[in-house]
Design goal:
Elements (H helix, E strand, L loop, with lengths): L2 H13 L1 H63 L3 H22 L4 H20 L2 E3 L13 E7 L10 E6 L2 E3 L2 E4 L1 E6 L1
Parallel strand pairs: 2-6
Antiparallel strand pairs: 1-4, 3-6, 4-5
Helix pairs in contact: 3-4
Family: Belongs to the GrpE family.
Keywords: Chaperone, Cytoplasm, Stress response
Main location: cytoplasm
């Protein structure tokens, strides 16, 4: 084919409406496919972004909960950090309580005053660290949250049944936590 024939054929195709429609349709179809692909890519990216945001928010919430939990645990540890030492000193306080009536029988007033000062200093130091003695009296209701019944005896009167008759050993609380239950005798 000559160059002139090729040019004529191209002109015929350009002038032919069927060929033009096919080219336009082909171009439109390609453009539509590209738009659909772009939309689907945008939608995929939007979905990924929303998933990433959700994961970020969850991770942030978990971290915030972790910080709050560790802060509460740290406060609790500080409140009861001296628990073992204070618990170890409770028998010394009990010994002072048992010894004081005998020491007061002594004729030496300086000895009585000196021992009382030492006892008071020890008790006040422990109170400063958060130790509180439970106030248990005869006739109080027996409460298993604060008291330990070491024995039951027949109640001297009807109104003392199920009530505390005597306190054998003082109970103590440290920062509102029982570290030693009061040992009591209960009427039955």
């Amino acid at each position: 084919m000559s160059e002139q024939n090729i040019n004529e054929e191209i002109q015929d195709q350009k002038n032919n409406p069927e060929v033009q429609n096919e080219e336009i349709n082909s171009t439109e179809q390609n453009t539509t496919e590209e738009v659909v692909e772009e939309r689907s890519e945008v939608e995929v990216l939007k979905e990924q972004l929303s998933k990433e945001k959700e994961q970020y928010l969850r991770l942030f919430a978990e971290f915030d909960n972790f910080k709050k939990r560790t802060s509460r645990e740290r406060i609790d540890i500080f409140k009861t950090a001296n628990k073992e030492v204070i618990t170890a000193l409770l028998p010394v306080v009990d010994d002072f309580d048992r010894a004081m009536p005998q020491i007061k029988k002594s004729e030496d007033e300086a000895l009585v005053t000196g021992v009382e000062l030492i006892q008071n200093k020890l008790v006040e130091t422990l109170k400063g660290k958060g130790l509180v003695a439970m106030d248990v009296k005869a006739g109080d209701d027996f409460n298993t949250d604060n008291h330990e019944a070491i024995t039951q005896i027949p109640a001297p009167t009807e109104d003392l049944k199920g009530k505390i008759i005597d306190c054998v050993e003082t109970g103590y609380m440290l920062q509102d936590v029982v570290i030693r239950y009061a040992k009591v005798v209960v009427g039955m």
